[in-house]
Recover the amino acids of this structure.
């Protein structure tokens, strides 16, 4: 899919399990992560890093990945699993 060189894609992570009142925000080259408990936020950071590593292995930018390939990458890094319920 040709989206042009001006296209920009960003992965947005939103954690909703924060109970300690601490505001967590992490920004990377193609991701923004907001909120969550310390554990949840760290997990989002880990998966964002793994996503970027997988993109680098494939010599692609996030904005160049087709939806089907993104789903494949998500499955590879464990991004498609539902959150654990406590």
């Amino acid at each position: 899919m040709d989206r042009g060189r001006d296209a920009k894609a960003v992965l947005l992570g939103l954690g909703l399990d924060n109970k300690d009142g601490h505001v967590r925000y992490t920004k990377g080259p193609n991701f923004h992560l907001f909120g969550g408990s310390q554990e949840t936020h760290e997990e989002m950071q880990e998966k964002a890093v793994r996503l970027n590593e997988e993109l680098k292995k494939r010599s692609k930018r996030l904005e160049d990945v087709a939806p089907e390939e993104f789903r494949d990458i998500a499955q590879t890094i464990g991004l498609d699993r539902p959150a654990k319920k406590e």
User: Anything to note?
Assistant: The chain has a mean pLDDT of 88. The chain is about 35% helix and 15% strand. The two ends are 40 Å apart (CA to CA). The chain has one domain: 11-77.
